[in-house]
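This entry is retained here.
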Amino acid sequence: MNNKLPLQTPNLTAQNIDKIAALFPNCITEMLDEEKSTPDHKVYKRGINFELLKQMLSPDVVDGDEAYEFTWVGKKASIVEANKPIRKTLRPCPAESKNWDDTENLYIEGDNLEVLKLLQESYLGKVKMIYIDPPYNTGTDNFVYPDDFTMETSEYEDGIGLRDNDGNKLFKENTRSNPRFHSDWCSMLYARLLVSRNFLSEDGVIFISIDDNEVSALKSICDEIFGASNFVAELVWEKKKKGSFLSNSITNVKEYIVVYCKDADSFEGLIGEIKTNTETYPCINAVNKRELRTIPSGIISKYKEKNFFLPKGTEISDTTMSIVLHSDLVIKNSMLAQDLVLEGNWRYSQSAMTQYAKKKELYITRDLYLRRIVNETRYKTLKDWLPRVGDDSDVSYNAPIDLNNLNRSGWGSNEDADEELRLIFGVQKILDYPKPTRLIEKLLASYRNTKDCICLDFFSGSATTANAVMQLNAKDGGHRKFIMVQLPELCDEDGEAYKAGYKNICEIGKERIRRAGEKIKQEDDCWKCVPLNRMDGSKPGDDTTAKIVKTIDAGDGKPPIEMVDISKNPDVGFRVFKLDDTNMKDVYYSAEEYSQTNLEDLESNIKEDRTDLDLLFGCLLDWGLPLSMPYRSEKIGNCTVHTYAPGDAALNVPDALVACFDSNVPENVIKEIAKRKPRRAVFRDSSFASSPEKINVFEIFKLYAQDTDVKVI
């Protein structure tokens, strides 16, 4: 801790740069510090890329040529696209959902950029983990997010200002990188990652699968968006045993998973192994510098002679390490009889060695070296190599995952993923290039202390991430929630998925979650009911915190048997939402456009096909509330009133939102809602017959619930 007074005013410029860096890390760059630099020694300082900052704050493309810095044609437009507001909504679909009333998981159909824009207020800083498997820029496939992201040569040359008015080249482009083939792909991903960063909590992390084609471009993009200092790792995943026989240059059996965190200071790291068994560690390390250490008397000796003496100056050595006695070594009755001063390449500080000795965690070995006994839990960080087969040769590559040692078994392969989908759907090759569930499950498990968090995947495909979340929850009793986002890409009519009855990828993803969830429930050994053992002396029927699911008549006058649920009870449901145009009519007309028809339309500003549920969840997005909370609907008088995220009057916790979308809502209903003092209340414009009635609503809330935020749509 620095306790000295600075004796100078704060560096406001540095503070302002810190603030801008927190909001726009992609706008931070390095520049020469002219005051501190010399001709022989260059010093650099943080600066701001003002051109990029102007673009981040502008709704339009800022003029200026774009060329490789890292940049590409369309980069500014992608920033504009990311920041552009939209008039869309998410419509709830209970009929396509599973456990709609109870689940906290979400499955959303629609363009992921627009969905992310809609969700960002509701989930700002609330997502701990993001995993995405975006389309790879292979130039061979044809996806709705086109997997051949190329530009016409003329379009690219115009974008970078390569030629003058006469068609002559103004400068030589970097032909080696062929950036025109990357531009559309970079723009597509840049915009989505830019918005997704807002979702991450300060200790959040994002995993992105990618192959050789764009891994360098992806890292450059992520360096801008998340900040180069927040780079965590470039994991290498062994995706298959054998490569393609069609390869002309090299057999490729790997892919990458690029990992960035939101804030390196808050990020807790990825853990591959947790050790709880007792081990012993050597106290010297050949590469450390030589220093003196004083070893307190009283530590145990395992040397073969119970009583032993070596004079000061003696060297004890093997082929790699040596220690020199700077005092006499005296062992009596297998114990160090007096303090010992040693010179060596020590692994631990003097204070640490003293503490270990006091705790009886230090001993003299059979060869007169020192070792430390380690009892506390040890955490080993995740390796950056994710092999198809694990470290333990005695364990099957696809053995159940050991959460305390993720490296023990394999990380799965493309073949495993294909087989998983075949077993779930009974169809071979229902989708191309899925990821194995165990790969995602292990990545989730590697970030410890995240049992209660939100996991987002906005290129969800066959919903492997959802499967992994449910599976991991079943293993460790976690309460992770997932948000899956997927464009409803049409299936090829000649493909196996279409023949099996699935018209688009979303249908495959939703059905996979349903079937995988049921499989988890059936196979999980923890889903059991056992008799309740009332060890506190209470009797059947008395209050208990246990979750009693049923009571069995024991007969012969014996007390009934209470069956209690001890399962980990993972949430295997999901709420489905679909991206759609706004719930509101476009009621803005120029004077010449007015007619009797659209004047009548103005009587209601809400589209006719929208339900109360559509309006309720549309309000949640506008207010920045999550879409996964419970709600109830009830009748007050003849009006339907919806309460979202009900509170608890006993704990003085108000309802999060109360809504009534009926027409001509009477005053007694409005008073009843106001008396509940919700945090928010919302009505529709047609709920009131006249403007005075609308004004009266606000007056009623001022009287009964001054703190309630009241809105009319």
